């Protein structure tokens, strides 16, 4: 009898444990780096420079193939004007810290014990620069370093995956142009301290961030979190990475709750204008509600859980499996997640509102932080737009282009274009030939990718696919025109393609160009004058309607919009590329003097190893930079093939060439009579036995310093005129930029230490100044 009772007790214990997975499956922040103790210091107090600019400390930190490097400073205290630069020699990324250390909020509050921002390379160089100030400052100690794991190591050490059958998560780029993608832009990767990973998201329109309590549970943890947006792939199936942005390296702690497992923070900047925001649903979810979860599983680039092969609905989409009002998980689902997904928003598909904050693994996995309970707990501290607010529809002018020429050749992505949610099917990004015979192009018109309509069943007859551009601001322009390449090859009844324009943000559309039926097996060029839209903001869209046959594939490529600001005549350049044995690693871009990409191509996975390709582009008169990149880091010559590239002008003159480089190389060139200075700057070389060589420019002076309303910049007499400048705060964020003038206003800047970079003919001169 005693054994029987014991068995009952044991069974009851197992049952309770199964019903309360909070204890069994509550996730901890994922560990994504090795952390080591250090004993690195300046002298205390350190001795500043006696005159001029000098290096007082320099140290390299390196771990082969590390995904990032972070340092922990203690007792940081520098003299006014002195600063620490953390520099990546691989990609040129720079972070700057001065005075009392790290700025953590809008009030310029500084902390002296802090983790630096992650630099996503395997090597950094830390340098202390001094300008001859007071000797009564401590200096600093570096007590820890964190080296991020490689993707291979992350896969090996990745803890529990809440994946019950197949992994149905997808790169979020696969949903570009949908509301799910737009909502997912508000989701960020969080690196907490030196080595912890979670997911966060913007709640409301004031710059507040939500994550789990078990990710960030204290003010000190909030002060040392890197908040990284747009960390995703640039295409659904490609290897290209979008340009990510670390918008903050700290946050203010608002409140937390361990029972519902959420923490509410406030970022020092408000990125909602760029990345949108999410809102909580005041209505609790119900069993069967369709859901999706944008997340950063395993520290990877953003993925989304939309489909499920376990308890999916009739279409295979993830849904709520169970809802309870007391104990354990209040919302449960079979939506795939992994370590690192903690803190992700669980979003109801019908309303695109957050119904829970993900925090538990297992099968099913789920949340015990339901939206209605979180709303009640936050109470009057809820941010504006935080409840039942759908945010900005994706058809609004979320992206407005005001710098021209604008170029889009759909290289493995639709970029800032969007797919309509009111049509019948989507445009697809394609390389090589379309799948159906006797229709569509066999290759791209520019680069290696294009967009097209696949009109095989069920996408005909009379089915519509709409692809919409960003908004183009043509105010103050005297001329405007666009061009694009189109391909319409198939049956005579293949359907029609229209280019339409709207000046009321998509409420009404007018056709400005159209073609119907078979136009032959060739890329054709179209030009459209936009004179009637000058002085307005215009949005464009390609509206394709399939005909009565599957032989109706239509394609678009090499879209360009130019205005009078582009400088008039254009000049043809030709880029000849011989690929190495790994063409899928090669890409390139051409940027104008303002740093805008005007042409790009790659990667070239669809091209044969060692093959040659030729691309022609038309550029406005001016100076440009051509950058070639290799994702593996060994160039295109000469280890694995004899790759090379040559850029020539319309007269056959070589403008740039190369091929033997590492991860990337950049060559500057000019067309249309523009010229760059070839003079070399005077430098001062400082060398110490314990300090690597450092080159310091002596070509610029700055005064007054400290400054109140403006600063004066004086260049050495032999220098040519500078083109532009940028001012960075101590976090490395650009706070002001523009065309170079000898007198630069700074009265609107907050008091503190800043760096100014003067850009001169492809080189950059840097100086620090204090704003009083």
UniProtKB/TrEMBL annotation:
Cross-referenced CDD domains = MAM
Q: Which InterPro entries match?
A: ConA-like_dom_sf, MAM_dom, Peptidase_S1_PA, Peptidase_S1_PA_chymotrypsin, Secre_tail
Keywords linked to the UniProt accession: Signal
Which top-rank group of organisms is this from? Bacteria
Q: Which residues belong to any copy of the MAM domain?
A: 409-568
Q: Which Gene3D superfamilies match?
A: 2.60.120.200, Trypsin-like serine proteases
- Renumbered to this chain, the signal peptide range is 1-18
Keyword Signal on entry: yes
SMART domains from the xrefs? Answer: MAM
Identify the NCBIfam families for this entry: Por_Secre_tail
Q: Name the chain's protein.
A: Trypsin-like peptidase domain-containing protein
Show the taxonomic lineage.
Answer: Bacteria, Pseudomonadati, Bacteroidota, Flavobacteriia, Flavobacteriales
């Amino acid at each position: 009898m005693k054994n029987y009772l014991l068995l009952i007790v044991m069974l009851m214990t197992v049952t309770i444990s199964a019903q309360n997975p909070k204890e069994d499956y509550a996730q901890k922040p994922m560990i994504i780096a090795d952390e080591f103790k250090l004993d690195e210091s300046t002298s205390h107090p350190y001795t500043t420079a006696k005159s001029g600019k000098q290096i007082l400390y320099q140290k390299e930190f390196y771990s082969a193939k590390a995904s990032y490097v972070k340092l922990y400073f203690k007792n940081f205290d520098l003299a006014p004007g002195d600063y620490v630069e953390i520099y990546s020699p691989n990609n040129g990324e720079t972070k700057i810290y001065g005075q009392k250390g790290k700025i953590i909020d809008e009030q310029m509050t500084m902390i002296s014990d802090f983790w630096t921002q992650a630099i996503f390379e395997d090597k950094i160089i830390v340098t202390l620069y001094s300008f001859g100030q007071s000797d009564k400052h401590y200096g600093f100690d570096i007590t820890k370093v964190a080296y991020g794991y490689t993707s291979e190591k992350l896969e090996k050490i990745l803890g529990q995956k809440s994946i019950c059958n197949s992994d149905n998560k997808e790169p979020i780029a696969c949903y570009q142009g949908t509301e799910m993608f737009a909502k997912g832009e508000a989701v960020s990767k969080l690196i907490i301290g030196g080595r912890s990973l979670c997911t966060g998201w913007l709640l409301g329109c004031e710059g507040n961030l939500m994550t789990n309590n078990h990710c960030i549970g204290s003010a000190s943890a909030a002060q040392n979190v890197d908040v990284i947006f747009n960390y995703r792939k640039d295409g659904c199936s490609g290897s290209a990475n979008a340009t990510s942005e670390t918008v903050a390296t700290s946050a203010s702690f608002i409140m937390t709750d361990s029972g519902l497992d959420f923490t509410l923070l406030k970022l020092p900047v408000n990125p909602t204008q760029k990345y949108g925001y999410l809102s909580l649903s005041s209505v609790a979810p119900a069993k069967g509600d369709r859901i999706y979860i944008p997340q950063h599983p395993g520290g990877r680039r953003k993925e989304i859980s939309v489909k499920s092969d376990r308890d999916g609905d009739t279409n295979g989409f993830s849904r709520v499996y169970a809802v309870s009002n007391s104990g354990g998980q209040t919302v449960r689902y079979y939506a795939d997640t992994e370590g690192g997904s903690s803190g992700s928003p669980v979003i109801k598909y019908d309303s695109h509102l957050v119904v829970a904050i993900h925090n538990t693994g297992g099968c099913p996995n789920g949340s015990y932080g339901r939206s209605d309970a979180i709303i009640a707990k936050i109470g009057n501290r809820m941010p504006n737009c935080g409840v039942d607010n759908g945010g900005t529809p994706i058809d609004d002018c979320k992206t407005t282009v005001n710098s021209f020429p604008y170029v889009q050749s759909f290289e493995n992505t639709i970029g800032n274009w969007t797919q309509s949610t009111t049509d019948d099917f989507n445009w697809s990004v394609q390389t090589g030939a379309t799948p159906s015979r006797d229709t569509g192009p066999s290759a791209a018109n520019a680069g290696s990718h294009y967009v097209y309509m696949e009109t095989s069943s069920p996408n005909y007859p009379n089915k519509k696919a709409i692809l919409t551009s960003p908004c183009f601001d043509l105010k103050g322009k005297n001329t405007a025109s666009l061009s694009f390449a189109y391909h319409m090859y198939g049956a005579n009844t293949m359907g029609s393609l229209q280019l339409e324009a709207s000046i009321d943000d998509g409420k009404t559309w007018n056709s400005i160009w159209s073609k119907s039926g078979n136009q032959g097996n060739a890329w054709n060029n179209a030009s459209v004058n936009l004179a009637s839209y000058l002085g307005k903001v215009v949005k464009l869209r390609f509206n394709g309607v399939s005909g009565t046959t599957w032989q109706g594939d239509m394609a678009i490529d090499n879209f360009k919009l130019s205005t009078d600001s582009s400088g008039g005549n254009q000049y043809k350049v030709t880029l000849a590329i011989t690929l190495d044995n790994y063409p899928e690693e090669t890409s390139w871009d051409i940027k104008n003097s303002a740093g805008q990409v005007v042409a790009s191509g790659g990667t070239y996975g669809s091209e044969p190893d060692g093959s040659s390709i030729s691309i022609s582009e038309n550029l406005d008169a001016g100076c440009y930079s051509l950058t070639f990149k290799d994702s593996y880091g060994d160039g295109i010559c000469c280890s694995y093939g004899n790759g090379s590239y040559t850029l020539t002008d319309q007269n056959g003159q070589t403008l740039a060439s190369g091929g033997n480089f590492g991860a990337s190389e950049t060559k500057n060139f000019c067309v249309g009579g523009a010229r760059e200075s070839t003079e070399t700057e005077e430098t001062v070389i400082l060398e110490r036995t314990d300090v690597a060589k450092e080159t310091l420019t002596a070509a610029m002076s700055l005064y007054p310093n400290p400054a109140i309303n403006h600063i004066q910049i004086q260049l050495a007499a032999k220098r040519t005129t500078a083109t532009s400048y940028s001012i960075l705060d101590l976090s490395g964020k650009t706070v002001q930029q523009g065309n170079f003038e000898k007198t630069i206003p700074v009265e609107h800047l907050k008091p503190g230490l800043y760096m100014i970079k003067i850009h001169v003919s492809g080189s950059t001169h840097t100086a620090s100044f204090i704003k009083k």
